[in-house]
Amino acid sequence: MPRMNLGLPFDHCSHLPCRSGFQSPSLLRCGGCQVVKYCGQPHQKADRPRHKVQCIPIKQTKDKVTEEEAKLRANPGEDTDGNPFDNAVGIFYFVPSTRPYMQARFDYISAILNVRTGEAVEVALDQSLDMLRLSRADNLSVRSQVPALYLRLGRDQDAYDFIKWYAVERDTKYNWDDMSLPFLNLHEEDAFEAIIEKPHYTDLSHVVASTLIKIRLMKDLEGLRAFLRSKPNASGEARKSHTTTHIG
Description:
mainly alpha; two-stranded antiparallel ribbon; 2 strands; zinc; Znf_MYND; zinc-finger; metal-binding; MYND-type domain-containing protein
């Protein structure tokens, strides 16, 4: 099952059904939201009535993030040594003065996800991971949306690693204040392994994402088996080419 052929458009003109600008390096990026592209100003103008419903909230929430960051830097509050972005990383939400800023970033992500482009999903994922970097305890539950964002970008392995960390590492004894503890440090975990029946942390979104990963793996193996039955003497290069093309 091709991972990058999941219906998520990248680098294309957002004025449907335009195809002339598909994956063109000269596409124009919307100056408001920065996550939608066009083949030229005529199509950008024509699409404005539809797109402004998405674009305006994104710009407004992004401006709010900038405003709240300026406020936080001017008035960082107690226990930050004057700069929470350097001195409160990982425990951001435990510092009350940071909460309006974190809520603004969460609202920005929510607005971005109303746009169905690869660029929008990439920005939402980057923003989500950075919020987790700032606040490990994740009082806004950003962790719930991360696996789905990884999957929409075809990054199944990263999604599985993320889910497994919460399943095996996030127990009641984990100290969110201790920045010396590993955090989201699992990589290249075996997605073929048995399901973890008693995880330390259960989130419905994580269960759904891990189930989808298992189903994709099963379909991948079925596809590879069918290929080998039809071409039992296929060379190693042909098998690799099939895997790359049909699985990704």
